[in-house]
Amino acid sequence: MKERDFEQQYEPLWQAFERQVEDCRQGVEKPQTTFPEQYRQLCGQLSLARQRDYSDALVARLNHLVMRGHHLLYQREARATVGRLGNALVAFVAALRQNRQYVLCAALLFILPALVMGIGTYLSETFMYSLVSPEQAAELESMYDPANDRLGPERDSETDLAMFGYYISHNIGIAFKAFAGGMFLGIGTLMVVLYNGLYLGAVTGYLTRAGFGITFYPFVIGHGAFELTAIVICGAAGLMMGHALIHPGRQRRLDALRTASAEAVKLMYGGVFMLFVAAFLEAFWSSSGQLPVAVKLVVGAALWLFVLWFCFFSKIGMSREPD
């Protein structure tokens, strides 16, 4: 096809595309639903023009249109992505409040054993060894030695990014076990939540007794707001599925599980996102031995208040709650 024929065939389309881009940029109208398809066609026409060695002026014009279309399409997709994330966040908070009984149950299963184990370990060192070996206890002391430049698992300061990946893998593993444990009538979830509560209590009591509270508490308070809350939330999701299997009501167990899973997955998604935030804070903020203790404690307390307010007291998701 000659260049002149090519231009005559597609000129109306190019002019219409250019008008639509200009109108969208000026806010006169929003991109039409056919805009992505028109953009792909324009990209194909640009490719043809280059392959057929059409004039530089034509190729430059089409390339300019493609770039303007790409910019507009990117903005549109970015806004759509932000909108989807916002909707997912609202759905998470709404599901959290609608199923607050499961969250409360999971919280008690986590907090009460932690308190009992923490007090017992603080009063008696041997109580610690019912859950943690002497070698592990010695490693904990090494991790939270005030002389360390970086707190937590031993590593070089240049490996923060690698530790970020490690924390993500570790935390997501716990969350998935707590969630998937609901498939075993909730027994798996109970074991995961109870064990993590007992372990947290044992570590807290032992390090407090050993005099490492000055490093341990500033380390855990920041990321703990997200991590510990997320473990409870994922445990609540597992309990929902376990309860559906044990007490399906008038539904078949498989149908009851499907219904419960639809809500449980919303909690799981939110919990996983919180664990990503926790991993980031643990790798880049909590582990720093250079930050003042007072700063870490104040910021950590603020994060706890924010997480609790956002999940349970903010107005987000209230419109989706049942009357």
From TrEMBL:
<keyword id="KW-0812">Transmembrane</keyword>
<feature type="transmembrane region" description="Helical">
    <location>
        <begin position="164"/>
        <end position="186"/>
    </location>
</feature>
<feature type="transmembrane region" description="Helical">
    <location>
        <begin position="293"/>
        <end position="313"/>
    </location>
</feature>
<feature type="transmembrane region" description="Helical">
    <location>
        <begin position="225"/>
        <end position="246"/>
    </location>
</feature>
<keyword id="KW-0472">Membrane</keyword>
<feature type="transmembrane region" description="Helical">
    <location>
        <begin position="198"/>
        <end position="219"/>
    </location>
</feature>
<dbReference type="InterPro" id="IPR002798">
    <property type="entry name" value="SpoIIM-like"/>
</dbReference>
<keyword id="KW-1133">Transmembrane helix</keyword>
<dbReference type="Pfam" id="PF01944">
    <property type="entry name" value="SpoIIM"/>
</dbReference>
<feature type="transmembrane region" description="Helical">
    <location>
        <begin position="267"/>
        <end position="287"/>
    </location>
</feature>
<protein>
    <submittedName>
        <fullName>Stage II sporulation protein M</fullName>
    </submittedName>
</protein>
<feature type="transmembrane region" description="Helical">
    <location>
        <begin position="102"/>
        <end position="123"/>
    </location>
</feature>
